[in-house]
Amino acid sequence: MNAIKVSTSSLKAMMLVIPPIFILMGLLDTWVPKEIMVKYMGETSGWKGIFLAFLIGSVAAGPLYASFPVAAAFMKKGVKFRNIMILIGAWSSTKIPMLLFEMSSLGSTFALTRLLINVPGIILTAFLLEAMTSKEQKADLYQKAERL
């Protein structure tokens, strides 16, 4: 019975998060031209793309599983693989509300130290994942995102 209660509660929580995310993804798909996304977060975006990926991931609302539809929409728009990995990493560990909670609960020193360790860690991980993922694997991922 406890497992059913927990499962039902989790399902309800997901049903409150997922529909707004899909609505926002539809709006992103409609309102933001692919050329803009490629310009600011595509293959030649450099540090600007990294910064935007961190910013979007850090201010985004919702649990980590909500980042995956966003990542798929970004793939459709031509966002660089590395920037997508940074977005997911930032979404999972550099959320601004989480930082504020940590500051109030665990102290500023802890929260800022964790943030200063996570940021380069996320960047390094994204660069490593990009280097370790073959062009064929990336192309396959982008093709699968197009079909969604």
UniProtKB/TrEMBL annotation:
The entry's localization annotation reads:
Cell membrane
Q: Which residues cross the membrane?
A: 12-31, 51-72, 84-101, 107-129
Q: Report which superkingdom the organism of origin falls in.
A: Bacteria
Q: In its keyword annotation, does this UniProt entry include Cell cycle? A: no
Q: What is its main location?
A: membrane
> InterPro entries per the record?
DUF318 (IPR005524)
**How is the protein disposed in the membrane?**
Multi-pass membrane protein
Going by the UniProt record, its keywords in alphabetical order are: Cell membrane, Membrane, Transmembrane, Transmembrane helix
Question: What family classification does the UniProt entry report for this protein?
Answer: Belongs to the UPF0718 family.
Return the protein name: Permease
- Organism encoding this protein: Paenibacillus violae
Organism phylogeny:
Bacteria, Bacillati, Bacillota, Bacilli, Bacillales
